[in-house]
Design goal:
Blueprint (H helix, E strand, L loop, with lengths): L8 E6 L4 H14 L5 E5 L5 H14 L2 E5 L3 H14 L2 E4 L2 H11 L15 H15 L14 E5 L5 H9 L5 E5 L18 E5 L2 H14 L11 H18 L2 E4 L5 H11 L1
Parallel strand pairs: 1-2, 1-3, 3-4, 5-6, 5-7, 7-8
Helix pairs in contact: 2-3, 6-9, 7-8
Amino acid sequence: MTEHNRQPIITICSDSVGETAEAVVKATIRQFDLRNAKIKRYSHVLTEAEIRDIVGEVAQNGGMIAYTLVQPDLRELIREESLRLGVRSVDVMGPMIQAFIDSFDGSPTRKPGMLHQMDDDYFRRVEAIEFTVSCDDGRDPRALLNADIVLIGVSRTSKTPLSMFLAHKGYKVANLPLIPEVKPAAELFQIPPGKIAGLIMEPEKMLKIRVERLRALGLTAGAKYANMDRIIFELNYARELMEQLGCLTINVSDKAIEETAGIILEHM
């Protein structure tokens, strides 16, 4: 296997869970379309022996390291070991910590896992997630009035994954499927338009997604659900309703969940 075709391996090394470094790595992977990239995560790394083992493993198997270590001695050790063994390593958090020290004359706590500290924000996110799960796919129309964000759209416009992404950011989200033959919940028309986001998609893209969905369920691709005329009919109905509501409308055809969420939050 040539160097160009070898599977990229990115090792995450963290003295906490490692989600921060992994999020940065995944965002970078998407920039290079490295769909075959493999991520290995080592969490709660607190000793020098663990650092040496991890760097040694990467030196032997190839790849690179992304690390979030708040203790200066561990950061220095992984940097030295990486240089010694010829391993490419990236300090994800260190430069930011140093920038804060230089800019604000502060002193960091040096305590791992502060991102996941059980503070008010943590409990707010838990509450938001519980609310969002209970309101998925129009389960509780009455709760629409209590939502921070309401997502509407026809089937397969990524309402549920987008709802959960926003919920993890602390927003109570309700999503409502739009079906031409089913009258929308009355509560939908009582919500300020600024809280509603309508999701649409190009018909060709939706057809492909729905066909794949039917195949995954072991159903025939010729069903009404995956018929182009039906899809166009549903999308036209959705657009008309969104115009009636005066809400934000987003074409999610080529957008990542994070991008769509960013548009919604900026609009709010």
